[in-house]
Write a structure and sequence with these properties.
By secondary structure, the protein is α+β, with helices and mostly antiparallel strands. Helices cover about 10% and strands about 20% of the residues. It is built from 4 helices and 11 strands; from the N terminus they run ββαβαβαβαββββββ. The strands form 4 sheets. The protein has a 4-stranded antiparallel sheet. A 3-stranded mixed sheet has the order 1-2-3. A two-stranded antiparallel sheet has the order 4-11.
Length: about 200
């Protein structure tokens, strides 16, 4: 069970506040501060597009795959494997799962919200066939610039690649595929939470 909205919490489940990143400026050398930023640098966007989080913020400084992080109790930051399971379910070829870059023709389109309310044209393949309703909050660069609002959905996984990089997933208005990329951890990306499997009631 995946959330169908981008996370918009500025506090952890224990009520500890994340660091407000408005006005933080250049954070190129900072990989540990738990910043959150309003999508496209405007609080008016938060109710619809949520916040953007550095990896440290999303993970609440944990390095454990599948950790709760900024998610509510009973939910966790999706792992790279969680995304691969979703991609496989949506029809991605098994031999493409571990590839980096954009892969899985049509898979990205199944995740994207339909039409042009949030996505700018052409929103290739966007049909939201699985109800995921990905919306393009874009991302924040470490130098303080915001990019991709309306054209890109960038979301963290809980799996690190190196000390300064982690796996992410990316959707673009100009592609029907889904990207598996490894951005720097001090970028601000969106978060979607996934429910802990032991809390999901069996289907009858």
């Amino acid at each position: 069970w995946w959330m169908a909205e981008n996370l918009r919490s500025s506090r952890y489940a224990d009520n500890t506040e994340l660091v407000d990143g408005i006005g933080a400026g250049d954070i190129n050398s900072d990989f540990t501060t738990k910043y959150h930023f309003p999508a496209n640098n405007s609080s008016i966007n938060v109710p619809t597009y949520g916040y953007l989080y550095t990896w440290a913020a999303a993970m609440n400084s944990s390095t454990e795959s599948g950790t709760q992080g900024a998610c509510p109790v009973g939910w966790h930051i999706p792992s790279d494997l969680d995304f691969k399971e979703l991609e496989l379910e949506l029809g991605m070829a098994a031999n493409a799962l571990d590839s980096s870059g954009f892969r899985g023709p049509g898979i990205g389109g199944k995740l994207k919200e339909v039409g042009f309310f949030s996505w700018l044209e052409p929103n290739l393949g966007g049909n939201n066939s699985d109800g995921f309703r990905a919306i393009p909050a874009g991302y924040r660069n470490p130098d303080g610039t915001y990019m991709g609002f309306g054209t890109a959905f960038n979301i963290w996984t809980s799996d690190a690649i190196s000390a300064n990089q982690a796996w992410s997933r990316v959707l673009s208005n100009e592609s029907h595929k889904i990207g598996r990329l490894g951005p720097e951890k001090n970028l601000g990306l969106a978060v979607r939470c996934i429910k802990d499997k032991d809390l999901i009631a069996p289907q009858v």
